[in-house]
Design brief:
484 residues; alpha/beta; 7-stranded mixed β-sheet; 4-stranded antiparallel β-sheet; 17 helices; 14 strands; 13% strand; binds pyridoxal-5'-phosphate
Length: 484
């Protein structure tokens, strides 16, 4: 048996046998980190260092790592079931019924293992239904790793407005079928659909582009997408892989009141166990059934581990208490960061989109406000936050550049989302803000020393911080130079 000695040992072993030493390009780090345990809000590395996990695995961990009830449900099911290659299991039926119950657009549901598979199937179905090839995707949204959508997420300013593929090896013909438009720009979508509607199978949209730091849709944007799609026979696909179950049990569609034709879900659905879903109107989804002509398959689809974890997670989320709790946490982070920004004299407005699950009437009473910062963010922010009434367990730090938005669209590029996407957006934040948030974080909670090896780890963190100080991917924990 091999004895684990250090993060570095494990990472070096990983690099010898795995390209880059990680199983997702997005997990690469500039310092050695090998995780050996996780529980609740924490994970621990091979040297006994304990970390408060603000990253939350890009979003699934709505209940924290290793939730006992979810794990118990999984344990119970594997005592009696495992993968079956024929028919359907009792728990798949139960989960599909549950999803159809809570998601407004869901008349039929199919399960996949990842969000990418779900968006792939949604686009295939849209092409089959419409007999058209092109799709509309928006600058700043991420829908997975397949060729039709792997482009134009965080693009350099000179790449905005043209194809910006994120990988070599993508089929040029497939890239060509994807039209990139600016998010929240009704006019651009309307013009494109009027000109080329006959060629367009689907509009796919991350309803809140969390992948660039949580940009809220203008209320009229989603309504216009619905109206344009219906009028021109285009299918509207909401990618709720991140928003689903996190903003509300029924996804953001249950909040914004716009019902898509198809929608995709993953992440928080099973608190991190691998499962995803494609949901939609029966008239379209039934094309995957007998005689429909559209292929849907996958050896592991509907695996009992993911299905039982999903049922347990949804049961816990059902009464809304978890959402209220996460929003309260977001508010705490918001006020802490705002306070630090004030102390340091950084012109910054920390903006929380409130979530009023139990106060839906508030939507009607909120006045419209002009954005006081005169940047290009949502000018009707007051209305937006309230109308959404709900609008989310989002915390965004916006207006990082104060009165000087610079060259990038303010509401697309310069926000830091506190919570699961913090690390993702961190690299793009203004250095002053990085330092402010870092020192607030250090004051709020330092990494906990759990054994003697922690002090060694701490030294390693600060030296790696110095070494990577200029690296754009430097993250706040550990290695942030503001943490002593
Ligand atoms: C909005 C959105 N859609 C799709 C995906 C792809 O999901 P997966 O990584 O499970 O393939 C992601 C992943 O981060 C996502 O954020």
């Amino acid at each position: 048996m091999t004895t684990v000695q250090s993060n570095l040992d494990l990472v070096e072993r990983a690099r010898r046998v795995m390209p880059g030493g990680v199983n997702s390009g997005n997990r690469a780090l500039p310092w050695p980190l090998a995780i050996v345990e996780a529980a609740g809000a924490y994970f621990g590395d091979a040297e006994g260092m304990r970390y408060l996990d603000y990253h939350a695995a890009f979003g699934p961990l709505i209940l924290g790592h290793n939730h006992p009830d979810v794990n118990a449900a999984v344990r119970a099911v594997i005592e009696r079931l495992d993968i079956i290659g024929a028919g359907v299991t009792d728990i798949e039926v139960e989960l599909a019924e549950k999803l159809c119950d809570v998601i407004p657009s869901a008349e039929r549901v199919l399960l996949t293992n990842s969000g990418s598979e779900a968006t792939y199937a949604a686009l295939r179905l849209a092409r089959a239904v419409t007999g058209r090839n092109k799709i509309i995707k928006f600058q700043g949204t991420y829908h997975g790793w397949h060729d039709a959508v792997l482009m134009n997420v965080i693009s350099a300013p000179d790449k905005i407005g043209r194809h910006d593929p994120l990988s070599l090896g993508m089929l040029p013909d497939t890239i060509e079928q994807t039209i990139i438009l600016p998010f929240n720009d009704v006019e651009a979508v309307s013009e494109m659909i009027q000109q080329r509607g006959e060629e367009i199978a689907a509009i796919i949209v991350e309803v809140i582009p969390h992948n660039i730091g949580c940009v809220l849709p203008r209320p009229e944007f989603l309504t216009a997408l619905r109206e344009l799609a219906t009028r021109h026979g285009v299918l509207l696909i909401f990618d709720e892989v991140i928003t689903g179950f996190r903003h509300a049990l029924g996804g953001y569609q249950s909040i914004c009141g716009v019902t898509p034709d198809l929608s995709t879900f993953a992440k928080a659905m099973a608190n991190g166990y691998p499962i995803a879903a494609l949901a939609g109107k029966a008239e379209y989804m039934d094309r995957f059934g007998p005689g429909g002509g559209v292929m849907f398959a996958g050896t592991y689809n509907g695996h009992p581990v993911g299905v039982s974890a999903a049922l347990a997670t949804l049961a816990i989320l059902q009464d809304g208490a978890v959402h209220q709790h996460t929003f309260r946490l977001a508010q705490r982070a918001t006020s802490g960061i705002q306070q630090i920004a004030g102390e340091l004299g950084i012109p910054m407005k920390v903006d929380v989109r409130e979530w009023h699950l139990h106060d839906p009437d508030r939507a009607e009473t909120q006045p419209r406000e002009r954005c006081p910062y005169r940047c290009r963010c949502r000018s009707d922010a007051g209305n937006c936050a309230a109308r959404a009434g709900q609008a989310a367990s989002d915390t965004r730090v916006t207006h990082l550049f104060g009165e000087n938005p610079g060259t990038q669209p303010m509401d697309e590029m310069s926000s830091v989302q506190i919570r699961s996407c913090l690390a993702v957006s961190w690299a793009g934040a203004d250095p002053g803000v990085r330092s402010a948030v870092g020192s607030w974080a250090a004051r709020s909670r330092k990494p906990t020393r759990v054994n003697d090896r922690a002090s060694k780890r701490r030294k390693m963190s600060s030296s790696s911080a110095r070494n990577s100080a200029s690296s754009p991917s430097t993250l706040p924990w550990p290695g942030c130079s503001t943490i002593p």
